[in-house]
Structure formats: C-alpha cells, structure tokens
User: Which sequence fits this backbone?
DNA sequence: GCAAGGTC
C-alpha cells in the first residue's frame, strides 16, 4: 500500500480527489478520516502532531531553578494521539510513504515528524516527498510524477527554532513571573515574538508621552466663486511671519496658473493574510476575530485558505470562470461589469510556494451567513473583483493664486473613472471640485482666516497596523501574528484598540530591555532566520546553533542574577500601579486589587486593617483596570479576560456589586433561590449579572427615565413600568422603597407581589 | 500554569 501524508484533512481530501480521478472512498481508521483508492491511502495531519516540551519533573515553577531549563532534557511528545495512532497503523500496512505536506519549512518539519512515527512502526518503508504550490490537478499530477527526497536539513532548521523558542521562552517566562510574584493564572510571559511586539507598543507609548507639540499656523483665504485657498507656505512656524503675511494681503486674488492632469490609482494587490487582516481591521474587526471568521468561511468552502503570504494568483486559477459564478446573486451587477473589462490581475510583491492569495471560491447567499461572516466574505469578494478591475482615474487640478504679493494655492480632484473603486468602496474617494477659472482672472477676497494648530504625537498602533509592522520586521508568521496579539491582551499587557500598554507591560519591557535586550528585539528572529537558512544549506549544524543559543541565554541569566534585587523591586512597583482601582469612599486611601486565600481576588482598601471596605471580583480571568472612570463612584472600570473567550466588561465594580445585590434581593423576595444564593459568598461578578447590567445601562439611558438613583436598574423594570410608577409619583428607588405596596398596586395596576420584590431590591440598592 | 508554530 502507498501512504500519502498531507498537512491537513482538507488538503488530503482534495489530493485524493485529483489522484483518484473522481470520488475516493472515505476510510476511517481509529476515528480519523482518510481516503482510499486503488492501492493508495491519503491521510491528513493536523499541522504539527508532536511538540517539544520538558519532562514532567520540571513542572513545578517554584521548585525548579529556571536557569536549569537552559540545559534540561527536551522531549518530543504527541499532541494528537488519534492521528499518531492512525499513522502508526497505516504505516504498518504500507510499503511506501509520500510526504505531501505544505511546501515550506514548517511543512517539511511536519512531514519529518510524521515520517519518524510511521517508520518506527515499519522500518522498511520507502519514503519520498512531493512539492506543489496549489492543490489543482496539473500541479498535483506533476508533483507526484516528479517525487523527490525529503529535505532533512530543512526540517532540522525548523527543529532548532522549536528548541530555541522553548528554552528562551520557558526560562524567561518563569524568571519574570517568579521575580514579580505573579504566579498561577496571572503569570507574565516572555517570548521571541511576543516580547519585541510588546516593546513596539511600549516604545510607541513612550514617544507619545514624551511628545512636545509644536505650534504652527495655516493661512486661508476665501475668494468669490466659492474658492478657498491656502497660503503656499503651508505650515508656518513663526507667529510674526503670519502677522506680516496677513498685513500684506490685498483685496483681490489673481489666478496665476491652473493645471489639470490625470492621476491614476492602480488597483490593489490580491489579499495575503497581512493585508486581509489590515483591511478587516479597517472595518472594525479585531485580528483574531477576522481570522476566526475567515477560517470558518474556508472550512465551509466559501473562500480559499486564509493563511498565506502569497500576493500573486497562480496561473492555475481560472479567474474569468470564477467571476462568472457571481453573475447570479448579490454581486451580479459587479460581476457583469467586471466581465466586460480586460480583467488583468494585479500582482503583489510576494509570491510564495505554499498557498494562493485569499480569494472567494464559491458564491453564497447573504441570508445563509451571519452578519459578521457576510461582512468578511463580502470584503474578500470585493477585493478579488478589485484586483481584476481597471485603474481609478482622477482629474487632479492645481491652482495658484496671488493675493497681493503672497502666493496661495488650492487643489481639486474630480473622479473621471472609478475603476476598481466601484467594486471596493472601503476607503472613501472624496472629490473636491474647484470652480471653472481662467488664468489671469481676478477674484475679490471675501475674507481670510488664520488657523492655529499644533503638531500631533504619533498615533497608537491599531491591530491592523501592528500586524503589518510585525510582517515587515519578520516577527511571527501569517498563522501566528493574530494569536500573539491576543496573547498580549490575555496577559493584560495591553488594552483597547488602538492598543495601550499597561504599567505591567512597561515594567516587563523595561526590565528586559535593560537586562536581557536580546529577547526584546526583532533582530533575534532575523538572526534565527539566517541560522535556519544556514542549517538548511548544511553550512552549520543544528546542534551548533542550539548550543550557541544556550550559551547566550546563560550569560543573560548571569546578568539577571547579578541584578536580582533591583529587578524584583522595579517589577513589583510597576505591577502595583496597575492594581489601583480608585479611592476608598470611607477613608480616602487607595483601593487596590488584593488576593485572598485559594486564589480568590477582591478589591480592598489599602488602609486595612483600620478600614475594611471591600468589593468582590470574579474568581477567574485576568483582571484589567481600564482607564474609563465611573462617574458615580470615581472608580476605574474593570475588564475580565478569560482565555479563549471574549473580554467581559464588568464596568464599575461598585455599580456591579449594587446591581448584584439588588438582583439577589429580588430573587429572595420572589422566593426563587438559585442554588448559589443562600449562604453563598457574595459573588456578584458572575455572568448572570451581566445581562441585567447591560439591560440596566440601556434603560438608564432611555428617554422616559427620570431616575437619578437606579430605579431603572432594578431587574424587571422596563420603560412601561417606569411610566406607570411615575404616574403614581414614584420616580426614584428611594421613593419606591418607602411606598406602600398595596396602595401602589391599586394605583398602577401592577401586581402587589412584584412591587414588594422591587421594594426590597430598591432598599438594597440605596 | 511556560514559546512559537502548525491546524480545528
């Protein structure tokens, strides 16, 4: 039997279809679906099926000296047992195995991992490797006709990367976590990609903080015929000069020249992962969310593989036939127009061997997708169309006017031919139409204005911009960059979008930049890339590169241990400030996030034990203190970040607590005790509160609300109830708490029981 | 409970 190994299930399926000429038989083995035809079986892996790690003896962070990790044994263990087992049993049956994983470095390593497992089960296996750049018939058939050798050197270079990443990452992650006392769920992490990325964000923030704005002025004049012109000097840095220019202005402007030239905007290049995420970011998607949706669209057959560095369509894709598929449905107008043109595809700068650019593979009805999925799908379709469309052409006019001795100018732009912009309307193309004028024409000056401005600090990085920057610096890959960004949020290193570093991030980056600068710079990745190339070219041995790296890390640790005390202190100082939530309403001390026993957290007063004011916090997730302030309590809003979930904006912890109390009181009054209610510790910050909190916020902003102290926040009170209560003279929760339930019921028509429940809830609230 | 890299 001839066993063929692909990188993923989907690739296996399509390769089997092409090689078999029709539909291969699905062939289940140990819960894994492979494909069988003739004497062949094609099986898909799931990327890496084994991973490197330390033996279990090193699991205890406190007991193992992190320096030991530099030279500790590293073991390879299966990540996916099902696939490993299936591979073993298929390997036993086979006499030949062909590696058909993706045509790149990691693909070679993934292939070798699989090969090792199969050969352990059956040492007599003959092996070979096929290389293809797209899973299309010609390409695959050609690849299988010209099978070559497995490139063990290329795989070895990938293995070196794995080991170096693990050793540096694990040792420094543990060091920084132990030194700062942030253990357990709240550990701090360090890595070859994440730390330089975080440093970019921190460095940018420092630039912004230290930016000194410089004042400047711009002079504008309004002329008849609706013409507004700016002084040709643009930014003028001296106020004196502004004044003297203004003094020289006359009552009439004379048109010196007026020139119109065409300006051509070329259509954009096909989407690779970076430009896709960046475009999605422009319409409000986070990097991780955009990739999650793209992945779904790919798995369901609507778009091509979303993880690619390629910006050139391979000739094997029939672009015209693909466009014709869109003649029916949502994009029929666009498809028809496009097919009437030349349809010459644009080419980007990068052309790679593993996957084509991202393009739509099939039309789909809008009603079949969720709103977000549709938006991403539409983006991919429109980008695809744009890459086949004509240039966008403008008439650009530049106008020069003299007012007295002073030169002024204006520029106009008129859209002549929208070209690709017709299909891809994501960036606005604004026209500025100038009045029709002739050289030498004289216009009266109606007035002028001097605008005082100042230079602006550089902008914070949004996720789209950061992904692009990482790409340029070689940080991470198309498949990991969005994950790395998510990781920075999960560690509470950054918040918001554009991204702002927390004080924790400052402390960690400062420490690393001072004592372990290697890990904070993109150069580490660039050097590693060079070493990997040398390994794959047999110029250095894998072991030499790893050994060199270990020696380097050893000296980093020497430097760290020399400055142990300083580092511990500065980390703890930085970390403390991220924990200040507000000021205690009882004693004016700082309220900070504190740890209770058994991993619980709460907000406590730093005046303890004299002051015992506390507020509860949820048990799980990283607690982030945001910069949004509650108007009522003056406390910073809290955000909870759980791995793999959306961040939860808990809001003001005091408001959250009051909401919860009110809700509890209501439940008790209605007699439906939820299991956790009775005798349970106060745990307001639970998901159940979230709904009512959000509703409450909506209600509170409703127009019919005359409520100053949270009447609308009581669970079960909607706008209609509010009106009814208001008609009986009840406008605040205080008034409700003091009202007689029976007579109020009679006045409003509301049930007495409900009113009684609201009353006790209102009491809890006030 | 650590990294980064695949894929789901």
Assistant:
């Amino acid at each position: 039997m001839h066993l063929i190994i692909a990188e993923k299930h989907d690739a296996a399926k399509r390769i089997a279809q092409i090689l078999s000429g029709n539909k291969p038989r699905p062939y289940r083995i140990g819960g894994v679906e492979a494909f069988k035809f003739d004497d062949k079986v094609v099986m898909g892996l799931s990327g890496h099926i084994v991973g490197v790690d330390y033996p279990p003896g090193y699991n205890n962070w406190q007991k193992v000296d992190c320096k030991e990790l530099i030279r500790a044994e590293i073991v390879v263990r299966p990540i996916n047992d099902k696939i490993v087992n299936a591979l073993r049993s298929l390997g036993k049956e086979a006499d030949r195995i062909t590696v058909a994983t993706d045509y790149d470095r990691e693909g070679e390593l993934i292939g070798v991992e699989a090969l090792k497992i199969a050969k352990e089960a059956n040492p007599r296996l003959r092996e070979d490797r096929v290389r293809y750049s797209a899973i299309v018939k010609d390409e695959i058939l050609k690849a299988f006709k010209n099978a070559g050798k497995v490139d063990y050197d290329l795989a070895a270079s990938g293995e070196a990367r794995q080991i170096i990443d693990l050793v540096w990452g694990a040792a420094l992650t543990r060091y920084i976590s132990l030194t700062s006392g942030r253990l357990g769920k709240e550990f701090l992490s360090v890595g070859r990609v994440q730390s330089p990325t975080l440093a970019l964000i921190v460095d940018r923030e420092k630039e912004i903080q230290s930016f000194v704005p410089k004042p400047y002025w711009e002079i504008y004049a309004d002329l008849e015929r609706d013409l507004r012109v700016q002084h040709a000097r643009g930014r003028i840095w001296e106020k004196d000069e502004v004044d003297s220019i203004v003094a020289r202005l006359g009552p009439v402007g004379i048109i010196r020249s007026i020139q119109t030239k065409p300006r051509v905007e070329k259509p954009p290049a096909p989407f690779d992962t970076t430009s896709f995420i960046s475009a999605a970011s422009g319409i409000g998607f986070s990097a991780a969310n955009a990739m999650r949706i793209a992945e779904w669209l790919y798995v369901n057959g609507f778009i091509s593989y979303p993880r690619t560095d390629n910006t050139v369509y391979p000739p094997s894709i029939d672009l015209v036939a693909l466009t014709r598929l869109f003649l029916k449905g949502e994009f029929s107008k666009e498809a028809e127009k496009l097919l009437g043109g030349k349809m010459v595809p644009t080419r980007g700068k990068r052309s790679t061997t593993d996957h084509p650019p991202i393009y739509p593979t099939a039309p789909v009805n809008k009603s079949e997708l969720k709103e977000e999925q549709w938006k991403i799908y539409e983006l991919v379709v429109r980008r695809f169309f744009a890459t086949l469309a004509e240039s966008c052409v403008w008439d650009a006019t530049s106008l020069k006017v003299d007012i007295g001795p002073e030169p002024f100018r204006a520029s106009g732009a008129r859209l002549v031919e929208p070209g690709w912009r017709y299909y891809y309307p994501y960036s606005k193309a604004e026209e500025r139409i100038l009045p029709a004028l002739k050289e030498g024409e004289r216009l009266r000056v109606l007035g002028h204005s001097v605008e005082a401005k100042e230079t602006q600090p550089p902008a914070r990085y949004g996720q789209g911009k950061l992904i692009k920057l990482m790409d340029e610096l070689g940080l991470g890959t198309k498949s990991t960059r969005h994950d790395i960004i998510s990781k920075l949020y999960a560690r509470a290193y950054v918040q918001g979008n554009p991204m702002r570093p927390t004080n924790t991030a400052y402390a960690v980056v400062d420490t690393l930049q001072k004592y372990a600068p290697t890990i904070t710079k993109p150069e580490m990745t660039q050097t590693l890339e060079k070493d990997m190339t040398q390994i794959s070219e047999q110029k250095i041995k894998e072991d030499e590169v790893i050994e060199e790296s270990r020696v380097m890390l050893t000296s980093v640790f020497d430097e760290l241990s020399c400055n142990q005390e300083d580092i511990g202190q500065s980390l703890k100082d930085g970390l403390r400030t991220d924990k200040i939530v507000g000021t205690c309403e009882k004693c004016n001390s700082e309220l900070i996030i504190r740890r209770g026993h058994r991993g619980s957290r709460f907000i406590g007063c730093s005046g303890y034990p004299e002051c015992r004011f506390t507020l509860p916090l949820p048990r799980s997730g990283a607690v982030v203190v945001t910069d949004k302030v509650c108007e009522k309590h003056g406390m910073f809003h809290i955000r909870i970040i759980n791995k793999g979930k959306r961040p939860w904006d808990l809001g003001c912890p005091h408001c959250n607590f009051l909401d919860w109390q009110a809700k509890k009181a209501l439940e008790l009054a209605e007699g439906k005790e939820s299991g956790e209610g009775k005798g349970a510790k106060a745990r307001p910050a639970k998901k159940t509160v979230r709904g009512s909190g959000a509703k409450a916020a909506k209600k509170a902003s409703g127009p019919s609300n005359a409520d100053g102290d949270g009447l609308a926040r009581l669970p079960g009170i909607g706008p209609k109830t509010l009106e009814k209560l208001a008609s009986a003279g009840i406008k605040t929760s205080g008034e409700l708490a003091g009202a007689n339930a029976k007579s109020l019921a009679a006045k409003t028509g509301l049930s007495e029981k409900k009113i009684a429940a609201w009353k006790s809830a209102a009491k809890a609230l006030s």
Remarks:
- DSSP finds 24 helices and 23 strands in chain A.
